[in-house]
Fold this protein.
Amino acid sequence: MPFIMPFETNFCGKTQTVYAVNSDNPTREGSSVTTSEECPNCKERHIYQVYNEKDIHEEDGYEYQVYDCKCPSCRKEFDLKIEFAIDSD
């Protein structure tokens, strides 16, 4: 079950609340992805910092990374899917 922890940080030029997913130390060194996503259940938009993808796959020139996530508003869990274009060089 994913857990979230709010923290304040500078994101996109201003201080915002970011929700670290499955990390009790969001300011630690290490690999993470920060993204703004809409909850598929309640449609609230939040900024998430996610760690440790549960799935990575390529499809049609894109890489998809899937992370566990949980909405701080409705508290429902969902899969957060992030799309990255694959550099063709």
